[in-house]
Structure formats: C-alpha cells, structure tokens
Prior knowledge:
With 286 residues, the protein is α/β, with parallel strands linked by helices. It is 39% helix and 19% strand. The chain has eleven helices and nine strands. The strands form two sheets. The protein has a seven-stranded mixed β-sheet with strand order 5-4-3-6-7-9-8, sandwiched between helices. It has a two-stranded antiparallel sheet with strand order 1-2. Helix 2 (23-35) packs antiparallel against helix 4 (52-66) and helix 6 (99-111) runs parallel beside helix 7 (128-136). The relative contact order is 0.11. The mean pLDDT is 95.
Amino acid sequence: MVTIGELYTNLKSVLRLMNIDTYAFEAKLIIEKAFDSELPRILMNRDSAVPESILDNIQDMTEKRKKGFPIQYILGEWEFYGYRFKVGEGVLIPRQDTETLIDYVLDICRKNNIKSPKIIDLCSGTGCIAIALKKEMPDSEIYALENSGIALEYLEYNAKLNQADIKIMEADVLEDKYTDNFKDFDIIVSNPPYLTRQDMRELQPEVRFEPITALYAGEDGLYFYQRITPLWKKILKSGGMIVYEIGMNQHESVSDILKSNNFNQTEFIKDTAGIIRVVSGVKQED
C-alpha cells in the first residue's frame, strides 16, 4: 500500500533526481491532475491508500516527464495571465514572458484612452495573447490569425473555453493576400517564431517537443519581423502600433526593422527577469 503522503514525497524525490528545478511544483501539478483536486485537499487524507488507477496514471505521467516531455503537454493545459489554455503537441506552450506584452498593450490603451481597440494577433498559436486581451478589454475587437491546422484547433477550443468572442482566421501571415481583408487597426501584436540557428542547437530537451515552425526563424531569428512589418503595416491607422515579442538581444535589430518601415517612437520593454522581451513602434504617415 502506498499512502498519499508517501506518494507526494516519493514523486518529489523522483523529479528532483531528474534535475528538474521546480520538482516540488511539478509534483504538485501531477498529483492534482491525477486526483482532479487541489493539493491541500488531497493531503488532508495523506494516510489514505492511493487507488491503483491513480498510481498507474501518475506513473505514466512521470515516465513521460523522464523522457523530457513538457509538463504542460502532460497536463494538457496551462495558465496564462490567469486564464486556462488547452495545450498539447503541435502548439507552442504559453509562457510567462509573453505576459509582458499583455501588460504593455493594456497600459498603452489606458494611457491613450483607447477603450475599444481594434487589435490583430498574428501567429496566434493557442490564442493566449488574443484571448487574454479580449478578457481584459471586453469592448475590444480582436482578430487572431494562425496558419497551422493543429494550432488552429487549440485556438478555437481556447476561445470557447474562456468565452472570448474573438474573430479567428486560418491564414499565412507571410502572404500578402490576407492583408486585404483588414484595415484601420489600432494595434498589431505578434509573438512570431524568433529562434536563431544557434538557439535551435541549444534548445532545452522539453522545448524540442514543441513545433519547430513555431520556434525557428532563420539564421538570425529575424525572418518573421522582416516579412510581417512591411506586409501588415498598411492595415494600421496612422499612429497605430506594432507590438512584438522578441528573443534575447534582438531588440536593436527589430527596432531597426520598424524604423526602416516608417515606424518611430520605438520602445523596449523588459520582462520580470529584466530581459528586453517586447519591442513596439508607432506608424507614421507615408
């Protein structure tokens, strides 16, 4: 017989031996997933025997984690900006770093008294950016564009899960024909692929399970910024903004791309770790 208390202690030890820095947090998540309850409530019965079905489920999840499978995929969902998102193989996992972009856009709208912004999210993936912005600004009009059929299914599911009334479209944002469907937007937001060739060589094991099409952006990681900026700037109002998430040390290069496409007032915004994570620019009259 294995008690709940023993299970929790043993699972933390196993994950710690796997060199997982957040082993206690991951043990909590795995147990909560298996029991479909919160850990404090589960541990109220720490001397109770664990049912075999739950032991088997936890063993399966632990074996996947040993193989490097992301904890987010194992759980099947992840939290972003306080909202739940379904995730799995074939879609990029929402990360806390991206919340920096949400904070910035909300702040810009408040400062400029834009109560009903018209926003388009390019390379939307799970829809975490578009959905979080819609939930935080219910009067906004938000579009989410995604090219991957697999990611699109997650995007549509997550919009329903969070009761977010956003407009979803399957589109390759690198093709000019799609831009004709849009005009007079206040803000373009995007967290496009931005990893360099060197970044791809040095990926953490669990990141290798995520779709390469959502990660890799050429030798210098700038391919999508170089393509999106000139293609999509025409849908913005004069004074409209592009707000990009970027990779480490890409801020000057992305700022140069924006400036060369008639954007100014570029800003660099740091994430909670002090890394410049977001670059923005304001469109000027052509």
